[in-house]
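If you are new to this repository, start here. Below is one unmodified record pulled from the training split, so you can see the exact layout before writing a loader.
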Amino acid sequence: MSNAFRIRIVSFALFGLTWILLVVSFSTFWYFYTDYENGAKRYMWSKFNEMRVMIYENDVLVENYITSWDMTEKTNERSIYRASVAFVILSWIQLTILLLTIGLSFAGALDRISSFPFNLMIRGMSICAVVFSVIAMLVFTGLPAAKLKDCQNTYSDSECNFSDFKHFVYTSKMTRANPDVGWAVIIPAIAFNIGGSVVSFFVNYQE
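And here is the target side for that same chain:
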């Protein structure tokens, strides 16, 4: 096995790990919120298409349901989730094409189409995937501002002076909120993607 072939395998593995993490990101919850009031503790997980709510009273589960964003008036908050996931999907599409192309390179198929610059395509798509993932991660940090806008659309400014409208991560005696698995896995996904992109400049997939 040549050194160049080994490097191809390394790049394929790094891009493959990125692909898997983006699937996890798309399919799991992005944000977690919990509060405690009048003896009841509420847990809520959210992602682009649904929210799961569990309510406990005296450590006994009394409610457990899933609701759609379409059932709420949180239009700005919903838009943040959907915009972020849209960029995750764009990154995933780039990586899917990229992995298929590298897979063909193992069989020597790219060498038969010498007129098309597959090396440049793979490097370019890998960089685009990184950019899309970074945008998805950063867009989601605008969640508190989106929540504030939704609140102000319904209530007065004085009634919207809460921590979840000011901070992306916060903890108090009665509430806690933080990004969940769906958002968190984008960070290692970006790291693996960058690693694969760097490696791709040290190997030719098409001779």
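Two things worth knowing about this chain: The two ends are 16 Å apart (CA to CA). Strands lie at 31-37, 40-47, 50-57, 60-68, 170-171, 175-179.
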